[in-house]
């Protein structure tokens, strides 16, 4: 059994074929992480408490509060307290920049900003002419699964990776599927890696929020083991993004702009 | 193929064993739903656009803005516009009641309120002495899976149900696992069904937020096909909630208060 700071081993009761027994079980660690921006509390995420700096950066990038590391004056992680403090060079009022954003807790939406984002994005479709052979898509999904060690041990996390047409570049696992992608985004921001010619590979479902995230980054190809929704298909169509779901074994469903899978 | 307002059939490209072909695919519908309370915009959820009244009621209940239908003066659903308007008898300022809540978009957390909720809950553990035989737990999970028609067609939704020890009482599917549970909560609120002696059955993972939701409702037993986290185990332990995960075939993992599974 893999142990590490993301796994806790606990004695639990297993019921198997009519018999109860006690055994050790590997449980994935979940912890709160609060992001402060210029001294103001922004949000508390529940996450896999690793690479908190990347999660904070990726979250800020996804929320449109940050587009480059040049805007960051300082970043401090207080891992034990579950705090990340980000100092932005732009000291303008955070509330003003977040104007229109609404509380959400259901894991599936944003407020008014959702519609604003839709409108803004539709005017800026993805241009990349990158293509990917189906066999390469399968290979990338296989690499994702091979790397998913925390999932294999606990069953309680999602995984996400950014890849070129041949191999995975960065890979993260997190209890939140959005967190896993935000850690990727944070890492790419930190290392100045452009996403406009890359592929996002994920274990999680392709909801409209995931498509919005990808569209903001101009990601041309999304691969998932899971299902899309009508709204994500519609967004991918409009944004010129190639969306592939149910990449499993020797099959996959290409929902939009299938010319890139050639 | 089941068709209905929650499924859209679309022509997509399937890749199978090296060959591309065009075929019809069933995709689950995702749509935004905005909740107004006393004329003020509260939140936009992305959801399966059915039973919007229940989702709105359950969301408000989960957020602590509502505890009984007696507090509701009126409720209007404008399905085509994706709007639910709720009039509460208490006209006091919504912002004041939401004080301390923070924007979240990652699907896995709340802000300051998360810690406040933790503290409040820990002082009010679940008292129910209800028990459930392992065989009954299996049966309930089987019933959940049998009812999961939308999942079988699209692979893109979660399911949740409330049950007594023998059978499922209400069942909902939604693209969001929290939405599915909130629809259950809304229905129980509407029909004045107490949850303190019931069982929550869900396809989704048992994160700390799901435990907080259950704890607020004093639900004594949670059954899931999926994994828990360290924080949800800790909460279930403290709240005297029996949490059972990986209920699959003739096995299940009992994480806390196993005396109720007897």
User: Which pair of chains forms the biggest interface, and how many residues does each contribute?
Assistant: A-B, 74 and 74 residues
Alpha carbon gap, first and last residue of chain A:
40 Å
Q: What is the subunit organization of this protein?
A: homodimer
Which CATH top level class of the domain at 134-260 in chain A fits?
Answer: Alpha Beta
Name the CATH superfamily assignment of the domain at 134-260 in chain A.
Cytidine Deaminase, domain 2
Q: Poorly predicted ranges of chain A (pLDDT <50, ≥5 residues)?
A: 99-112
DSSP, total strands of chain A? 12
**Percentage of residues in strands of chain A:** 25-35%
User: What profile does the largest beta sheet of chain A have?
Assistant: 6 strands, mixed
Report the radius of gyration of chain A as a whole number of Å: 19 Å
The coarse overall form of chain A would be globular
Strand numbers in spatial order across the main sheet of chain A: 8-7-9-10-11-12
Summarize the amount of helix of chain A as a percent range.
25-40%
CATH topology of the domain at 134-260 in chain A: Cytidine Deaminase, domain 2
Topology:
The structure is a homodimer of 262-residue chains.
Chain A: E1 7-16, E2 19-28, E3 31-37, E4 40-47, H1 52-62, E5 72-78, E6 83-88, H2 94-97, H3 112-122, H4 134-147, H5 149-154, E7 158-163, E8 168-174, H6 177-190, E9 199-202, H7 208-216, E10 221-224, H8 230-239, E11 242-248, E12 251-254
Parallel strand pairs in A: 3-6, 9-10, 10-11
Antiparallel strand pairs in A: 1-2, 3-4, 5-6, 7-8, 7-9, 11-12
Helix pairs in contact in A: 1-6, 7-8
């Amino acid at each position: 059994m893999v142990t590490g700071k993301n796994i806790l081993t606990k004695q639990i009761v297993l019921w198997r074929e009519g018999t109860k027994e006690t055994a050790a079980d590997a449980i994935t660690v979940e912890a709160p992480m609060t992001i402060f921006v210029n001294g103001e509390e922004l949000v508390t995420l529940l996450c896999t408490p690793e690479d908190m700096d990347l999660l904070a950066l990726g979250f800020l990038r996804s929320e449109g509060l940050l587009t480059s590391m040049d805007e960051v004056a300082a970043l401090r992680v207080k891992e034990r307290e579950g705090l990340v403090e980000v100092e932005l060079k732009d000291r303008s009022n955070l509330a003003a920049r977040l104007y229109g954003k609404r509380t959400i807790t259901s894991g599936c939406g944003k407020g008014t900003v959702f519609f604003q984002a839709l409108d803004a994005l539709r005017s800026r479709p993805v241009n990349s002419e990158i293509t990917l052979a189906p066999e390469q898509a399968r290979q990338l999904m296989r690499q994702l699964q091979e790397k998913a060690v925390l999932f294999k041990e606990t069953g309680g996390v999602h995984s996400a990776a950014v890849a070129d047409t041949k191999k995975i570049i960065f890979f993260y696992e997190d209890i939140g599927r959005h967190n896993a992608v935000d850690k990727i985004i944070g890492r790419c921001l930190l290392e100045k890696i452009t996403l406009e010619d890359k592929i996002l590979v994920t274990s999680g479902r392709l909801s409209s929020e995931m498509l919005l995230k990808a569209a903001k980054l101009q990601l041309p190809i999304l691969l998932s083991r899971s299902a899309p929704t009508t709204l994500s298909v519609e967004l991918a169509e409009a944004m010129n993004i190639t969306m592939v779901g149910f990449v499993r074994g020797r099959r996959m469903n290409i929902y939009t702009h299938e010319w890139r899978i050639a």
